[in-house]
Amino acid sequence: MTMHDPPHFHVKRDGEWELKVNFIEAAERMFELQWGDPPKSKTLKQIAKTVREHRGALLAEWEQGVSR
Predict the structure, then answer these.
(1) What pLDDT is attached to residue 10?
(2) What angle do CA 37, 43, 41 make, to 5 degrees?
(3) Is residue 41 in some structural domain?
(4) How far is the C-alpha of 63 from the C-alpha of 31, rounded, in Å?
(5) Cα distance between the two ends of the chain
């Protein structure tokens, strides 16, 4: 059995930062800064809102990719 990270995607702003977004987690545990300076709170809130609105589709896409 192969272990995979929890369902996630990456968001980056070139030359500034990269986040790992663990989209099945609550907003306060959703983000892991990979490098750079943390994004502004407004940016994090926008990402969290988008995740809440599309969590089902994100999970379906993740499961398709993992099962390949």
Answers:
(1) 95
(2) 70
(3) yes
(4) 20
(5) 13
* Domain membership flag for residue 26: yes
Domain range for 55 is 9-66
Residue 2 lies in a domain: no
Instruction: State percent of the chain over pLDDT 70.
Output: 90
Which residue type sits at 45? K
CA-to-CA distance for 40 and 51, rounded, in angstroms? 17
Domain count, the chain: 1
Phi-psi bin for 6: left (phi > 0), alpha (psi -120 to 50), beta? beta
> Which has more pLDDT, 3 or 15?
15
pLDDT of residue 60: 93
The per-residue DSSP string of 7-42 comes to: S-EEEEETTTEEEEE-TTS-GGGSEEEEEESPPPHH
